[in-house]
Specification:
Length: about 425
């Protein structure tokens, strides 16, 4: 059963994200949706022979086969071929250009943040505490809001919670939730290809911050047009935040954090600006950047060694639980974004669980321990379940073993002619 929509044919990126949606498949090779789903015509009716249970699950997820990106359709194929040709022409000419206003903004933010750190030594205690609170609140807006809720639909949030998260995310000032989620969905679906907005294969600096002030690759622009965002378009909270983003940014990210210390405990406005806007903004920005850079480069890959994302506990500590990135790219629908339930290294999970307890959140999706073990044994780097029985669960003794993967049998049948 292929629950997720497969990617556009021929995109090498789909390997990583696609493989995560094929956990039921029993193949040792890298799981490619194109391989799996196209084999339908060769005897394995993944879509044609849907039983009622599969249909029910697909209906509950809002899955529609006719919307599948891969679906063969002559007219669509022609359009796709045309787009591909245009893309190839554009790629030949693609040389990233510096977007000077964005580079200027990043330079200002980072230089100002250093000054803010210096001023922190002279700030009032309450100002210090206030900056910690706003970092935490805006961080939750990113992790529980833009990321786990709006990008991945890993749980359902009630209207009051969505309003709260949109407010918290506006404090962070990292663009509107719709735009953030769009790029993040592309990042997962086309991870580490030219279509990935912060493709880690282009190096640490590009993945960390360079992507924000360089012109995007044409493939990124193309993919922004095909990703399904209908769920967010139907969310009035997201669309409101998008429509009024500029005033919301000014109010929530600048005026509120800067004015509170000035009004309530007479901190100087000068001091408050550099600490509570500039430094605070820059801190959360860089923490998010670490997930794109560090958590895609250095660490273990217990769940899939064929992709770049890694498990980065230190990133998790500062990013409120977002550093378990190998796991997260394999199971992006898990609201915990990590295997283990410790709240210390995953404050966001604690927040969502608390919201669920008081009735503000529901429908938390997670992965069964069995599914995790199977996946780790099959695709992991061996740092997990090395001596576990699961490491041998999917092995076969030879032709005739009943556990031989169905898709392999189908290919074998073809080859024997
Ligand atoms: Zn994600
Ligand atoms: Zn990532």
């Amino acid at each position: 059963m292929c629950l997720s929509k497969p990617t556009v044919a021929g995109d090498a990126a789909s390997g990583s994200s696609a493989s995560s949606s094929c956990t039921g498949m029993q193949s040792n090779r890298t799981c490619s949706l194109r391989d799996v789903c196209s084999s339908a015509g060769n005897g394995i009716k993944h879509r044609g022979n849907k039983d009622s249970q599969t249909k029910e699950v697909e209906d509950s997820l809002g899955y529609k086969e006719e919307n599948a990106v891969y679906k063969e359709n002559e007219a669509a194929s022609e359009v796709l071929a045309h787009q591909q040709k245009q893309q190839e022409e554009a790629e030949e000419e693609y040389i990233p250009q510096i977007r000077w206003p964005d580079l200027g903004a990043q330079s200002f933010l980072h230089a100002g943040a250093l000054y803010g750190i210096y001023l922190l030594f002279y700030a009032k205690l309450y100002t210090f505490l206030w900056v910690a609170v706003t970092i935490l609140v805006s961080g939750i807006g990113i992790t529980a809001g833009a990321h786990r809720l709006w990008s991945h639909k890993s749980y359902t949030a009630s209207l009051p919670l969505r309003v709260l998260l949109a407010f918290a995310f506006s404090i962070a000032g990292q663009r509107d939730a719709y735009t953030w989620a769009l790029d993040h969905r592309i990042h997962h679906k086309f991870s580490e290809t030219d279509a990935d907005p912060h493709n880690a294969k282009r190096g640490f600096f590009f993945a960390h911050v360079g992507w924000l002030f360089l012109t995007p690759h044409p493939k990124v622009i193309a993919k922004r047009k095909v990703i399904d965002m209908s769920d967010l378009e139907a969310d009035p909270v997201v669309m409101f935040q998008r429509k009024y983003y500029i005033p919301l940014f000014a109010l929530c990210s600048i005026v509120l954090p800067v004015m509170v210390p000035w009004y309530f405990w007479q901190e100087s406005l000068w001091m408050s600006f550099w600490i509570n806007f500039n430094m605070r903004f820059c801190w959360t920005l860089n923490v998010a950047f670490f997930v794109n850079s560090v958590a895609h480069m250095w660490g273990r890959k217990p769940y899939d060694k064929n992709i770049m994302p890694v498990e980065a506990p230190l990133v998790s500590l500062v990013a409120l639980g977002e550093g378990w990135h190998n796991y997260h790219h394999v199971f992006p629908w898990d609201y915990k974004t990590g295997e283990f339930g410790s709240y210390t290294l995953n404050i966001t999970t604690g927040f969502i669980d608390f919201c669920a307890r008081i009735g503000l959140a529901s429908g938390r999706k997670f992965v069964s321990p069995d599914m995790i073990k199977r996946r780790a044994a099959k695709c992991g780097d061996g740092s997990r379940f090395l001596s576990d029985d699961y490491a041998h669960k999917d092995q076969v003794w030879g032709f005739g073993d009943r556990d031989l993967p169905r898709e392999d049998l189908a290919e074998l049948a073809k080859m024997q002619n």
